[in-house]
Write a structure and sequence with these properties.
Number of strands: 0
Strand content: under 5%
Helix content: 55-70%
Radius of gyration: 17 Å
Number of helices: 5
Largest sheet: none
Order of helices and strands: HHHHH
Structural class: mainly alpha
Length: about 100
């Protein structure tokens, strides 16, 4: 059963709207997933990276600014900037 403190924490964490930094983090997550699919990377690798980032954020109540202030850096950072121009197109036989 949730305590009043638990409910207060959830209300704090689940409120909106998202900050620009949170939106950018979600874009980076999407970029990682797109990059992994396009380049035939493993599901386990993607989940490992996402698990690291979720765990790091959870330690700070899912507060990105607090996590950053305490030295946490998501592994997905920068993936939203990856394009075909930046990394090239995958080879045709990569899907086989």
């Amino acid at each position: 059963m949730l305590t009043r403190d638990d409910v207060a924490t959830l209300n704090q964490v689940l409120r909106g709207p998202m900050s620009e930094a949170e939106v950018e983090l979600l874009r980076d997550i999407k970029g990682l997933i797109d990059f992994a699919i396009t380049n035939g990377l493993s599901f386990a690798m993607v989940m490992s990276i996402l698990g690291h980032d979720v765990n790091g954020m959870a330690r700070h109540g899912m507060d990105l600014s607090e996590a950053s202030a305490n030295g946490f850096s998501p592994k997905v950072t920068g993936y939203s900037g990856y394009t075909a121009d930046a990394v090239g197109e995958p080879e045709e036989d990569a899907e086989e």
